[in-house]
Amino acid sequence: MSNTAVKVQEKQQQHSSVRPQAKPKRKLKLRLTLGEKIVLFSFLLFAFYSSVKIISNQVTIYQVNKHIQQLEGTMDEQKKRNNDLYVEVQQLSTYERILEKAKELGLTLNENNVKVVQE
């Protein structure tokens, strides 16, 4: 073999035999101090309390809105009844009907005793 071929072979053997050694992996242990634990616990407690409070407020708002809608429906029904009663009063208070009822009861119309009242 030629000299250069031997040198190339030696370099290849050196590269294959010399491997970088991997450093052993250390397990990272998370150590928290007492103060950090207290801060973390209080944060988690606050987050839990806040979420429960928000949910309870939303439930209360939902119930109040539902009650308002029920009251509005009741108001609409009452307005309709009031309007129907108003129409009935208008029909029953016509002049012709009052005159007819008076004649049924035996009353007579005396033109001299009639006074016209205007609003």
Automatic annotation (TrEMBL):
Residues 1-23 are annotated as: Disordered. InterPro entries: Cell_div_FtsL (IPR011922), FtsL/DivIC (IPR007060). It is a single-pass type II membrane protein. Its main location: membrane. It comes from Anoxybacteroides rupiense. Keywords: Cell cycle, Cell division, Cell membrane, Membrane, Transmembrane, Transmembrane helix. One of its GO terms (biological process) is FtsZ-dependent cytokinesis. Belongs to the FtsL family. It is found in: Cell membrane. This is Cell division protein FtsL. The lineage of its organism: Bacteria, Bacillati, Bacillota, Bacilli, Bacillales. It holds the Pfam family DivIC. GO terms for cellular component: cell division site; plasma membrane. The gene is ftsL. It comes from the Bacteria. Essential cell division protein. The chain crosses the membrane at residues 34-52.
